[in-house]
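Sample entry (142 residues):
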Amino acid sequence: MKQSILYMLILISLVACAFPRDNPVDPENTGTPAPRKVTNLNARGYSNPKRVELTWNSIPSDGYIVYRAGYYNGDYRAIEELSEGEYDSESPTYIDNDIGLIAGKTYYYRVSAYLIIDNDLLLEGEQSDYSQVNVPSKNDGS
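Predicted structure, serialized as tokens:
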């Protein structure tokens, strides 16, 4: 019985692989390659007012998505989507001034670029390597 179930699962998997893919943002279907990986992400923390400034190398894209986590291998959550025109296309910058930032805590950031496909679907590239920053306390002089 167990062997029959295993064979059935293998058969279903093989048949499912034969179906055509119809994901509208699949680079194989659109002919559009995903944006390159964002590089040289740098984060700098400030205490007054409490904020983090991110900069990275510009790449051809329609925008960027900024992610933040509390640990380097933690759950990176999107905190901002920057559309074209909301950043300097030559040297993109983002200021994270979330009131929930805690002085003395280290935060980890990643950024990815995206393209807009068919006017409403996002084709996101690989996330950058992380950049970590400690938000200084007021007596750190930053």
